[in-house]
Specification:
The complex is a heterodimer of chains A (about 250) and B (about 350). Chain A is mostly helical and about 250 residues long. In chain A, about 80% of the residues lie in helices and about 0% in strands. In chain A, helix 2 runs antiparallel to helix 3, helix 3 runs parallel beside helix 7 and helix 7 packs parallel to helix 11. A 6-stranded mixed sheet of chain B has the order 6-7-8-3-9-10, sandwiched between helices. In chain B, strands 12-13-11-14-15 form a 5-stranded antiparallel sheet, with helices on one face. Classes of the chains: A mainly alpha (about 250), B alpha/beta (about 350). The interface between A and B is medium-sized, with 24 and 30 residues.
């Protein structure tokens, strides 16, 4: 029970920290909305092939944007962790009886909220653009991408603790961001690409989440793709939480 | 020597060791430390930078696992029951640890809840500490806006939120101005009066001397002296005569040898451009030393009679001055007799 209380306390602390910096809430929303407003018309004009039928641009594009939001919401965690290492906050909390997993979960849960709230807004706006919402599928999609956010957030925290330097973290995160997002077919489905590209995509855990999200967005729930998407993402999240907890156990400025 | 879980000791270590791998080299930070701290006292842990103070403190506070040896803190084994140790200690790290994006009060409330205090109890305790540490005027502002002294007060308050029997502080006064330093000393003395064991590391000689009931001096991860400050100074040296001759530093060693052979002189050491003589009879020894210098035509820039300082203890044991070892140090009280 102590664990649940501690996780709740850390979650509250992180949420307060975010609410005190409303600039992040604004940018968290403006980026996906800009994609929707400025990129979607481009897609619409090139649509018409096998992977991107003319009438279904939003069905392909909205899940991709939501996955990108999940990635972005999670991957920011490491920056604050480094700052907390340098200011001794983590060292102080490590001397308290608080569970390290609870400490990690505070940030992870905050990031999940920071993904989910703008995601709902983006879905509402997309419906305005003509996106046909399948509510059951969308609920599962948000759950799936919440797990993706958790995996990214825990990974980013672990990277922050291990790299210790903002510069190194920035290099690693921006270095993996492009291949991870491109090879998951976030902006355009990989099915449009050549075979070698699709093979590379299968090596990327995010690819399975994005594929499953596209099925869920159109309301097809009981597909193998959806099952694999949930399995891979849940495994990635569990692994990342384990790694993040281990990192917190040894965290030293 | 086996370590027992005895309530008559706040801290006890035996054969404590820790090394770090730095570029394929084993670097011993703590090498075989035996330490006993009785409850209810302020215990100073003095040594130059890199002596192993912070590593020892991190082992005692469960942040770091030792390679070998045993450590008991507040009756609990650091290795076998770290959770028990954590519940019984408070810790104020060198980096501070206040959460700058939360208010002072929020910092305190979170800390209290983490130790299992109820919400009501935590609130009462936070109010009490805000009062004691004079944080009232800014308790509801985020800690980012605090001055160095205000932040340090909050951090000490965080360390004692759950009324731990043992409080650890790592160089708590570094970076504080004299007034805030004096304030903190008062707070620590008040904690001692309330029965708390205070264990603090410092590289300030005057802090170790004036604040601690007992102290340990460490160098290269080893204990080199332990005892009450006055006792250490008595035990390790008599009176001290410091002479600054008008000589270039390179000719000091030969003069040091000659002065060491003088009457009533126990030993002589050159440091910081002057020679410090540990003597049994100050008046006689000084007359003889002046005579020797006059006979050689060496001028005297300054000479003083001093009470032995902790630096003299360090000097005797290590052959180095704590100042040369890279640490700023307070001047020993001295009486200028010649200029």
């Amino acid at each position: 029970m102590m664990f649940v209380l501690h996780a709740g306390l850390f979650f509250r602390r992180k949420l307060l920290e975010t609410l005190r910096q409303p600039v992040w809430i604004v940018t968290g929303l403006s980026t996906p909305l800009l994609y929707l407003a400025l990129f979607e018309p481009l897609l619409r004009s090139v649509a018409g092939g096998a992977g991107l039928p003319a009438g279904q641009v939003l069905d392909v594009f909205v899940p991709g944007i939501l996955a990108l939001m999940a990635f972005g919401a999670g991957m920011g965690a490491g920056w604050v962790v480094i700052w907390e290492l340098d200011s001794g906050v983590i060292e102080r909390l490590r001397v308290t009886p608080a569970s390290r997993l609870a400490l990690l979960l505070g940030t992870v849960l905050r990031d999940v909220v920071m993904f989910a709230v703008p995601a709902v807004v983006v879905i509402a706006v997309a419906v305005g653009f003509g996106f046909s919402a399948h509510w059951g599928g969308l609920a599962l999609l948000l759950l799936l991408l919440a797990a993706l956010t958790a995996a990214c957030s825990a990974t980013s925290s672990a990277l922050g603790i291990r790299l210790k330097q903002i510069g190194s973290l920035a290099a690693v995160v921006t270095g993996v961001q492009l291949p991870l997002t491109l090879l998951s077919g976030i902006l355009l489905p990989l099915s449009l690409g050549p075979a070698w590209l699709r093979v590379l995509g299968h090596l990327n855990p995010m690819y399975y989440a994005v594929e499953a999200a596209r099925d869920l967005a159109v309301g097809t729930i009981t597909t193998v793709t959806v099952g694999i998407g949930f399995l891979v993402t849940a495994a990635a999240a569990a692994l990342a939480l384990w790694w993040g907890t281990r990192s917190y156990q040894k965290a030293m400025a | 020597m086996p370590v027992t879980d005895s309530p008559s000791e706040a801290i006890r270590t035996s054969g404590l060791r820790k090394s770090f791998r730095v570029k394929d080299r084993e670097l011993a930070a703590v090498s075989g430390l035996d330490l006993t701290v009785a409850p209810g006292q302020i215990f100073g842990f003095l040594g130059p930078n890199g002596a192993g103070k912070t590593t020892t403190l991190r082992i005692l506070t469960t942040l770091l696992a030792p390679d070998a040896g045993e450590a008991f803190v507040a009756g609990a084994d650091v290795r076998r029951s770290p959770q028990l140790v954590r519940r019984r200690i408070g810790y104020v790290g060198q980096l501070g640890g206040a959460d700058a994006s939360a208010t002072g009060r929020e910092n305190l409330l979170l800390q209290g809840r983490l130790y299992g205090l109820s919400a009501a109890e935590t609130g009462r305790r936070a109010d009490e500490l805000i009062d004691v540490f004079d944080l009232g005027a800014f308790a509801d502002r985020t800690a980012r806006s605090y001055s160095g002294g205000q932040r340090r007060r909050l951090e000490v308050a965080l360390g004692i939120m759950h009324r731990p029997p043992v409080l650890f502080l790592d160089e708590p006064t570094t970076g504080l101005d004299p007034q805030n330093r004096a304030n903190l000393w008062d707070q620590l003395r008040r904690l001692r009066a309330a029965g708390t064991t205070v264990f603090l590391t410092t590289h300030y000689l005057d802090e170790a001397d004036q604040l601690s009931d007992r102290l340990a001096i460490i160098d290269h991860g080893r204990l080199i002296a332990e005892g009450a400050p006055a006792e250490l100074k008595r035990r390790y040296s008599g009176n001290i005569i410091a002479i600054t001759p008008s000589l270039p530093p390179e000719s000091l060693p030969s003069l040091e040898r000659d002065l060491a052979g003088g009457p009533f002189v126990r030993d002589a050491r050159a440091a910081d451009g002057s020679i410090r003589l540990s003597v049994t009879d100050a008046t006689q020894a000084m007359a003889a030393a002046f005579g020797l210098l006059a006979a050689r035509g060496i001028g005297i820039r300054a000479a003083s009679l001093a009470q032995p300082s902790l630096d003299d203890v360090f000097l005797r044991e290590t052959g180095r001055s704590l100042r040369d070892a890279g640490a700023p140090a307070g001047e020993p009280a001295g009486e200028q007799v010649a200029a």
